[in-house]
Amino acid sequence: MYGIDKSKLPRHVAIIMDGNGRWAKKNALKRLTGHKKGADAVRNAVRTCRELGIEYLTLYAFSVENWSRPKDEVRALMALLEEYLNSELQEMIDNGIKLSTIGNIRALPEKVQGILNNAVQKTAMNRKMVLTLALSYGGRDEIIEVVRKIVEDVEAGKLEKTSITKNIFSNYLFTSGMPDPDLLIRTSGEYRISNFLLWQMAYTEFYFADVLWPDFSKECLINAILDYQKRERRFGMTSDQLSGN
Ligand code: FPP
Predict the structure, then answer these.
(1) Is 18 in the active site?
(2) Domains in the chain, start-ordered, CATH in brackets?
(3) The pTM is what?
(4) What are the φ/ψ torsions at residue 210 (nearest 5 degrees)?
(5) 8 Å CB contact between 204 and 14
(6) Which one of 18, 53, 99, 229 counts the least CB within 10 Å of its CB?
């Protein structure tokens, strides 16, 4: 399909959706219109990943740092999230998409939390794809949270200090049970990871697209996957070791 090798699909794709504001400016529109177009691009990316058979899609929808944006913009983004969840729930159910979240969900407005919890519950049994929305998410905050929980468990005698391994640590993350991202896509020509999935991206392949998020089409996503498929992932080994020579 579209020249994509099904046997080499990334299991987990993570996306930093950047450039809604610049898209609006470029088109002489309000920032909110840029975010609305961004929500359409989200819909599109979810459908494409589902169609291609990607198992996990994780979207950076709202970072902890985003709380410092103007109040009106934060309110508009929350309203847009509500609207998105309300309009997409049925499609998620029909298409076997399981919704999950990472981040400090309790920081979100109660109404949004309610809608999220309902969608998470209603889709909990779905198995075709896991769609994870990172909301009020920060990678460093997540790591600190893990450290606190581990210390608590060690103090309570539930965990031995000497048995703390990379695997155990991963089990305490929000993403526990998910594979690490194979591919990270960031739009808008910025080359940063902006506090996203810091622990999880140790061996992730990065793909930076020059288009602004609202313009990130199905074709753009397919190109990112095709580019990923040309890469050799060595995880610190040599090419010969990987090919068994
Ligand atoms: C980046 O654009 C976008 C965000 C703040 C997060 C992503 C939000 C959406 C795609 C909107 C809706 C989301 C869902 C899940 C329905 P920016 O404002 O940082 O752009 P700029 O850097 O050009 O100003």
Answers:
(1) yes
(2) 7-139+180-238 (3.40.1180.10)
(3) 0.96
(4) -80, -10
(5) yes
(6) 53
